[in-house]
Write a structure and sequence with these properties.
Elements (H helix, E strand, L loop, with lengths): L4 E8 L4 E8 L4 E5 L4 E5 L3 E7 L2 E6 L3 E5 L2 H4 L7 E5 L2 E4 L3 E5 L2 E4 L1
Antiparallel strand pairs: 1-2, 3-4, 5-6, 5-9, 6-7, 8-9, 10-11
């Protein structure tokens, strides 16, 4: 139902059209929507989420997802295993193998 979905609106500059999407909310998924990609990522596969200027980088086991966004919009969608270690970074605590000298090693 739409009650369990997130409204997403994408504006395509090239043909000046807006597309409205609904992505199903799920406590174990993170929706990523941009002009380049539309994905609903399993949070267990996410290693870290970082902000670089206005772009967000979601690093998973297999690939990186880049899109424009704000960390404050992501935080309510994340489950309890994510720790905000800095203003522009979330780490998946379940995927950390070790931390030494400000270096994080993931499994």
């Amino acid at each position: 139902s739409l009650h369990d979905a997130l409204p997403i609106s994408i504006y395509f500059q090239q043909n000046k059209k807006e597309v409205n999407l609904w992505i199903k909310k799920s406590p174990d998924r993170l929706p990523i929507v941009s002009r380049q990609v539309c994905a609903n990522i399993n949070q267990d596969n996410i290693l870290k989420i970082e902000r670089f200027n206005r772009k967000i980088n979601v690093t998973t086991d297999k690939e990186d997802y880049w899109y424009y966004g704000k960390m404050d919009q992501i935080e309510p969608l994340l489950n309890q295993v994510f720790y905000r270690c800095m203003d522009g970074c979330f780490l998946n605590m379940d995927r950390i193998e070790s931390v030494a000298d400000q270096t994080v090693v993931f499994d």
